[in-house]
Write a structure and sequence with these properties.
Blueprint (H helix, E strand, L loop, with lengths): L14 E9 L1 H11 L9 H6 L9 H16 L5 E8 L12 E14 L4 E10 L2 E12 L2
Antiparallel strand pairs: 1-3, 2-5, 3-4, 4-5
Length: 144
């Protein structure tokens, strides 16, 4: 599979379709099982509060992966992402209720990097509960 988006069809400022990802306590349990990360800050309210958190928080790598989905869905091929990095700025707090939390992600093509390699830099913004939860979220994507 290759990227479905053509390099010639994007310019700096091109916006990617945004997405919202719900996160519940069940989501965290499933992610913990898949990743092997059973740190109690992701499932135990008492422990999370004892270490200074407001409540149970989503795994940072889960948050990072959800943000990357905006890029991979847009590109049409997960292998099109050749670099990806973020800084964790705020935790995604996941209340123990029927709603949980919501991670809202937007992305914009920030720059065309290499015409020969057909790579672009995509800058992402991820928010939860009105707060930016990832900083310096950037992906380098090889397009068709």
């Amino acid at each position: 599979m290759t990227a479905a988006v053509a390099y010639a069809d994007v310019e700096p400022g091109t916006e990617l379709p945004g997405a919202a990802f719900p996160v519940t306590r069940e989501t965290l349990v499933r992610y913990a099982g898949a990743s092997g990360d059973f740190n109690p800050i992701h499932w135990n309210e008492k422990f999370a509060r004892e270490v200074g958190l407001p409540d149970v928080i989503a795994h940072g790598m889960f948050t990072m992966a959800e943000a990357a989905r905006v890029v991979t869905d847009w590109a049409g091929d997960p292998a099109a992402v050749v670099e990806y990095g973020v800084r964790f700025t705020k935790p995604v707090v996941v209340p123990n209720d029927e709603t949980g939390a919501l991670i809202e992600v937007t992305g914009t093509v920030a720059a065309k990097l290499d015409d020969e390699a057909r790579t672009v830099r995509v800058d992402l913004t991820a928010r939860s509960a009105g707060q930016k939860v990832l900083g310096m979220a950037r992906a380098v994507v090889r397009l068709a």
